[in-house]
Amino acid sequence: MNILETIPLSLDPQEIAKKLRLSPRGHRQEMLDQLLLKAREVIRPRAAYRVAYVFEKGEDTVKIGPITFKSRILRVNLDQAGKVFPYVVTLGEEFDRETRALNDMLLKYYLEELANYALGQAQEFLLAHLAQTYALGKPSRMNPGSLPDWPLEQQRNLFALLGPERIKEALGVSLTSSFLMVPVKSVSGIVFQAEKNFKSCQLCPRGNCLGRRAAYDKKLLSTYE
Ligand code: SF4
Question: Which pTM does this prediction carry?
Answer without folding.
Answer: 0.92
